[in-house]
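Escalation from tier 1.

The customer reports that the assembly of two entities below gives different C-alpha cells on two consecutive runs. Tier 1 could not reproduce it. I'm attaching the input and our single run for tier 2 to review.
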Amino acid sequence: MTTITPINEDSKQESTVIESHADHRMFGLAAFLIADGMTFAGFFAAYLTFRAVNPLPTNAIYELELLLPTINTALLLASSATFHKASKYLKQTKNGLCQRWLMITAVLGVAFLTSQMFEYFTLPFGLTDNIYASTFYALTGFHGLHVSLGTIMIFIVWWQSRNPGGRITIENQFPLEATELYWHFVDGIWVILFVILYLL
Amino acid sequence: MTLANSSSNSEAIQKLQPTGWMKYISFSLDHKVIGLQYLVCGFIFYLIGGALAGAIRIELTTPISDFMPRDVYNQVLTLHGTIMIFLWIVPVVNGAFGNYLIPFYVGARDMAFPRLNAVAFWLIPPAGLMLISSYFITGAAESGWTAYPPLSITSPAAGQIIWIISVLLLGGSSIFGGINFIATILKLRQPNLKLMQLPMYCWAMLGTSILVVLSTPVLAGTLILLSFDIVAHTGFFNPSLGGNVIVYQHLFWFYSHPAVYIMVLPAFGLVSEILPVHCRKPLFGYTTMVYSIMAIVILGLVVWAHHMFTSGTPPWMRLFFTIATSFIAVPTGIKFFNWVATLWGGKISLNSAVLFSCGFIINFVLGGITGVALAQVPFDVHVHDTYFVVAHFHYIVYGGSVFVIFSSIYHWYPKFTGRMLNETLGRFHFLLTFIGFNLCFAPQHWLGLNGMPRRVAEYDPNFAFINQISSLGALLMAISTLPFLWNIIWSAFNGGIAGDNPWNALTPEWLTSSPPPIENWEGNAPLVTEPYGYGTINQEDLVEPTPESPSEESSQ
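Tier 1 run:
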C-alpha cells in the first residue's frame, strides 16, 4: 500500500518552469472583507446596545433628516450598478466604455461624500454631545473612510484600465474585480447602516 | 526535466534574497524563514515578559509595596500580560509553527500570500518595541491587559494610546496571518489531498484562523472607540458622559475569550502531531478530533460573557453562558482522552518533546477543571478577580500553550537547524519547568479561594508564606530558561547531525532535507494521505519516497 506519491506530472506540466498556482487573491480579499465586516458588526452591536440600555438625555432629542441620507442611499446603490456595468464592458474588451462607467461610479462616490459632508455641517449635534451623536459620527465616519478609500481605488483602476498602456486588461482583471467587490461591500454596509441609524 | 527546472527556479529565487543568517533579518518571503523569525522574535519577547513576571513575583514576596513604586507595578503588570499574549504565545503558536509547517502539510511551496505573510511578521517588532519603549518615554499603560474603562480612560493617556496602537498593529498582523492560513489550507492543498487526510495541526490552524478573522476585528473596532474616548473625549465607555462600560466588556471579551482558543487550539494541533511520532501509534480518534476542534470554534464564539458574571449581567445571560461554557468541556475532554488513548500501549520514547507534551496534558487538565468550576456562577462570583483566576489562566496558557511550544521546539529543532538538541539538558529543562511552574501557580489557587485579589502590590500578611512559595517557583522557572537557552544556542553549532528524519516520522515536513531547501522539496511534493500510519503500513515505503512511483492510490 503506497501512501506517498508524487503529483500527477501530466497535470502539472506548466508548474515546472515558473511555479504558478491559481489566483487566490479574490478569496483572500473576501476573507479580509469578512473581517472588516466584523468591525462594523461590533460597531452596530455597540450602537444597538446603547439604544436599548442607555436612556436618551432629555435635552438631546433630535430627529434625523431623512431626505439627504435617502438620496445618499440611491447614489451608492446606483454606483454599484454602474461599477457592474463597467466590469461587464471590460470583459467585452471595450476599455473606453469601461473607463466611462468607472468615471461615472467615481463621480457618484464623490457625490456621496460631498452630500455626507453637507449633512455633517448641517446636523444640530457635534461629536461629543452624547453617545448617540458620538456613535452616529463614528459609524458614518468609519463608513465614509471606506467610501473615500474606495473612490480613490476607483480613480486608480480608471487610470489603469486605459487602452492602450493600462495594466488592467481582459487577462488581468484582478484590480478591477477586487475594487468592485470592495465597493459592493461598502454599499451593503451602508444599507445596514441606513436602516439602523436613520430608519430604526 | 522536472528536477532540473525546479532547481534552476530555486536558484533564481535564491538570487532574489539574502543568504546565511542575514535572511532572518530581511523582508524574506520564504515561509520557513518567516516562521523562524516569528519564533525567535517571540522568544525574545518571552524573555522580556518573563523578566517582568519576575519583577511582579519579587514585589509579591513581601506583603508591602517595597520593590517598585505602585504606578510602575501597574505598568509592569500591563506590559507582562500584553507581551506574553500578543507578542509571545499568539505569534508563536500561530505564526511560527503555522508558517513553518502548514505549507509542508498541504504540499505547497509557500503560503498563499507570501508578501502579506512577511508584512504580517514585520508588523510585530515595531509594535513590540513601541509598547516597551512607552515605559521609558511616557510611562506604559497602567490599566491591565484588559484596558477596562473607565480605568483606561482616567489613567495617563499617552501610555494607553501607545498600548492601543500596538495592539491594533498586532491584531492586524494576526488577521493577515489568519487570512493567509485559511487560503493556504483551503486553496493551496494538493489536488489529491482530502481535508480529512490533513495532519491535525492544519485543522487546528483552520479553526484558529476562523476565530482570528471573526473576532479580532471586533477588538480593533472597540479599541478605536476607546481611543476616541481618550483623545476626543467622546463618551462611548465613560459613564460620566452617559456611556456604558458594559458594552466595552462585551466587545472586548468577544475577542478576548476566543483569544484563549487562538492561543490553545494550535497547541492542541501541535501535541497531536508530536505524540503519534514518539509513541509509534496512529493518532487516536482523528475524526472526533476534527469535529471537537470545530465544536470548540463555534462554542468559543458564544461564551464570552462568562468573564462578566459580576458585571451585573441579567440572570438569563448568566444561565446561557454558564451552560455554553460547560459544554466546551465536552469537545476538550474528547481531545484529552484521545491523547491519552494515543499514548496508551504505545512504544513511548520519553524524550524532552514527549515529556513537555505529557506535562501539557497534566497541566491542561488541571486548568480545564478549574475552568469548568469558574464557569459556574456562584463559584465565579466568589473567586472573581482573585488569584484563583490567575492560577487558572496560567495553567491554560503557560501549562498549556507554553509547554507545547517547548515540546514543539524539541520536536522540530532538528528540522529547523539540521542538528539534534542535547537530550540531557532537555530533560533537566523539563524537570525544572514542570516543578517550578506547579510550585508557582498551584498555591495561587489557595490564595484566590481565601480571597487574595489579583493585580495588587500589597496584600494581607497572612498570605505572605504562600506567596513566597509561589515566588520560589517563579525563580525555578526563570532558572529553567538557562539550560534551554544554552541548549538551543550550543546545539545549533555543535549538536549531532540530525539527518532528514531523525524521528522516523511520516508527516511531509520530514520527507525532505533538514533544513529544507528553499522550495521545500527537490522535485515534486510527496502526497501523504496517512500522516499517522504508524505500525499500520510499511515503514520502508514511507521514509524513502520514490519520485517515479505512480499515483495509483491518489484517488483513495
